[in-house]
Amino acid sequence: MSEKVYPVRPEVAAAAHIDNAKYEAMYEQSVNDPDAFWGEQGKRIDWFKPYSTVKNTSFDPHNVDIRWFEDGTLNAAYNCLDRHLETRGDQVAIIWEGDDPSDSESITYRDLHERVSRFSNALKAEGVEKGDVVTLYMPMIPEAAVAMLACARIGAVHSIVFGGFSPEALAARIEGANSKVVVTSNFSLRGGKVVPLKANVDKALQNENAAASCKTVIVVNRVEQELPWVEGRDKWYEDLVAKASADCPAEEMNAEDPLFILYTSGSTGAPKGLKHTTGGYMVYASMTHEYVFDYKDGDIYWCTADVGWVTGHSYIVYGPLANGATTLMFEGVPSYPDNSRFGRVIEKHKVNQFYTAPTAIRALMQQGEDVLGDSDLSTLRILGSVGEPINPEAWEWYNRIVGDEKCPIVDTWWQTETGGIMIVPLPGATAAKPGSASRPFFGVQPALLDAEGNTLEGAVDGNLVITDSWPAQARSIWGDHERFVQTYFSTYKGVYTTGDGARRDEDGYYWITGRVDDVINVSGHRMGTAEVESALVAHPAVAEAAVVGYPHDLKGQGIYVYVTLQSGYEQSDELMKELRLHVRSEIGPIASPDLIQFAPGMPKTRSGKIMRRILRKIAEDDFGALGDTSTLADPTVVDDLIEHRMNRK
Ligand code: WTA
């Protein structure tokens, strides 16, 4: 743990929306009188019909029921577009920076409103109705934001599948959400390479169940190049919007109507589609964006996430646009055309807030202190970090090289399930400690529990839970409320279980220590070890597979795989390669195993349960901490595992 404390500089506190006194007062009201607090904050959003009640929530495992502003009506796209037209119609809403540095575009609120309205009508013409799910499988192009907002405008529910996921993963999500329409692009461009995106949709729709629900594929023409076409099913985005009217009234939605589904990995089973609703989500996304990034009118804000992840939903699209901000959307990668790209983009667009992931910072850091070249970074005011714990070395580097020691760093802890930022040092209020996400945002009540569910007080380590509801919380798992209750509200009764461990220090700061379940975090991407295992055992050579995380310099955690082969198969480098490719094609490149160890047997209890704790320790190189192995059915397998542990730097 880092000992250093970086106090809030007085000039930063004076200029910020929230200083420490304000934080303390507002926090206290937010937890003591949530109805009054959120009733007031709810006004940052325009309602068609105002709410008369604010909070109506229960974490009781027999009746998990979460409602905010439940009798209010609104439209998320209206809040992101229409309400800004009068005051900021000509202001830039989205700055789009293409993969190629010579390719960029500025889209005003008026333009964006028109594009969204046209595509809304196009979706309607394709038969999409209020409540239908539309799957988006798109690169980082403006049409991704347009499609999200068009769904929201007509009351359809978007389900974005990250463009790096495989056809199999896409098919499962189309089927799971029973999605009628998929929006994609013919190709995507990343680091100068052309990636065939629609080809993956074609493959996904070879799956009968996915094909049974999806009858229409709308294709954005991103790269002029030939591609296979299914007549009747495939339609060009450009053709549809050209004939659509630019007048489309925003549908009146109830606060608790779904806005989007987003699939994420858990410790067991297939990825689950979290259901987020409209009212509370919009209030919270808007508020956190303004206060966490100290966003002020005229600022240029850049979040480097992909819209395929929750960060892209809340902090590229909904939060910033609800606030009338200028949000930058980047199609490319930090290493193209060279490693100075982030710096070049900051300089080119005069970025004021920059929000990225520790894995990106570590990758830059490896390239040396002059990695950003002579880029002028002087416009930067706030830096953000998200997705995994930021190690103090990376924090210090970020502070020095990117922030020039003058930009507060907001280390934001949150999850797909939470909808918005939960624990964070507010730039004008909270002294930073490198590596700590620090204090809860308004309305957020964290607690640490021991394994038995007892609340721990003071400076201590424990399981991080949240004891009461906040407005942006996911309401359910799409089509499976029971699984929602089981996953988040059953381990400990009456609270939301995050799945993370944390330590609280003497100052009440939270330090996230990582997942306490079988979820690993690879370059900030969440992955269930069970998912990778089930991909592996689907390969004919694999009898049994166990997957654990291990510390990785760049990725935070790497994927370590133990494989027992079916008899008749020999271990070889070729087979190792093949297994790697197999996982990539089942899930996607982000799930590609880093290390594969062939093992004659797994450490199992006498009842046949694999003891992952032991596998984890071996992968971590921590042989001294294996603990009691005497309960194993065959303790000698451990010696073999240790002897053949993969060599790594
Ligand atoms: C981890 C991403 C430490 C954590 C927004 C969480 C973090 C999971 C941080 C959620 C942070 C995210 N410090 N750990 N600042 N931010 N995490 O759903 O383990 O993709 O449970 O949401 O990432 O990942 P998800």
TrEMBL record:
* Domain Acetyl-coenzyme A synthetase N-terminal residues, every copy: 23-80
Q: What is this protein called?
A: Acetyl-coenzyme A synthetase
What's a Gene Ontology MF term here? ATP binding
Task: Return the similarity comment.
Answer: Belongs to the ATP-dependent AMP-binding enzyme family.
Give a GO biological-process term: acetyl-CoA biosynthetic process from acetate
Record keywords, A-Z: Acetylation, ATP-binding, Ligase, Magnesium, Metal-binding, Nucleotide-binding
Per the record, its GO cellular-component terms are: cytosol
Where do the annotations place ATP binding? 387-389, 411-416, 500, 515, 526
